[in-house]
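ok, trying the design again with the full structure, not the truncated one.
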């Protein structure tokens, strides 16, 4: 599928990206974070809501505080460290309450499915990790965290990540009337439904590749990775293996694959590799 790209952003600058929404990109670039974690500053009548403070980088957090004025709240889309490591320092400096879903983040208040926070609706979107949420505003702006990104597909790493949940939550977004996604890494997605459909097709295509590998007699995940990702850099093989495992666990739940002592096998009666 086609992915999006953008130039390296200027650090420490909050840039307008949607009405009442500014973005500041943290200085934590990597193969997993693209240019860095996107922190969003939401302007509200009560002050600025900071979404995903990112890593514990003093220069990033200081720039967020300088750009915010009064901080009304700190929100985490999910509990991965590149999104929440800076929360304690930012909370201590601002005195603002922390909002998150589930128990992984030390939050002052818990987000709930369907709840509203400063005019944004909470959508629980598990899969990338079980405590992931998106935030949707009534004008069609959606903060998609790591659930949907434009620069890459999301990794789904068991046991906290679940491929069946991820694909269900992806399909759910097609029922949401959003016109722009602002993701946790990379540029805005301006044709979000087309992109979500492409991600679903990408995942189903990967599933067919795994079924074909099982049909070819491959049992071990490393062998499947070598066949499915022939051009992937070796440094990323471990992450790809976790993604393959997530797909296999989904197939097992659907009685289309089974884990055996020597690896995995297809349940041919329930599985069509075509």
């Amino acid at each position: 599928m086609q992915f999006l790209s953008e130039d390296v952003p200027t650090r420490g600058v909050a840039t307008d990206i949607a009405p009442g929404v500014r973005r500041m990109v943290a200085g934590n670039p990597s193969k997993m974070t693209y240019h860095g974690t996107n922190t969003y500053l939401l302007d509200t009548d009560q002050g600025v809501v900071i979404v995903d403070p990112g890593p514990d980088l003093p220069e990033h957090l200081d720039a967020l505080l300088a750009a915010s004025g009064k901080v009304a709240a700190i929100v985490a889309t999910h509990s991965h460290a590149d999104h929440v490591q800076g929360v304690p320092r930012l909370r201590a400096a601002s005195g603002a309450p922390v909002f998150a879903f589930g128990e992984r983040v030390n939050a002052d208040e818990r987000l709930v499915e369907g709840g509203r926070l400063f005019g944004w609706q909470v959508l629980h979107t598990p899969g990338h990790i079980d405590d992931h949420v998106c935030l949707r505003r009534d004008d069609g702006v959606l903060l998609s965290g790591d659930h949907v990104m434009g620069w890459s597909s999301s990794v789904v790493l068991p046991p906290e990540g679940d491929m069946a949940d991820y694909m269900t939550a992806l399909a759910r977004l097609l029922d949401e009337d959003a016109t722009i996604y602002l993701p946790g890494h990379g540029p805005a997605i301006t044709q979000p439904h087309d992109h979500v459909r492409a991600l679903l097709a990408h995942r189903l295509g990967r599933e067919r590749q795994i079924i074909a590998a099982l049909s070819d007699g491959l049992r071990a995940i490393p062998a499947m990775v070598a066949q499915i990702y022939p051009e992937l850099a070796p440094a990323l093989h471990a992450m790809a293996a976790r993604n393959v495992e997530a797909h296999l666990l989904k197939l097992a739940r659907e009685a289309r694959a089974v884990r055996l002592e020597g690896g995995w096998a297809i349940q041919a009666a329930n599985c069509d590799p075509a």
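Keeping the full-length input from now on. Residues 201-270 form a domain with the Arc Repressor Mutant, subunit A fold (CATH 1.10.10.10).
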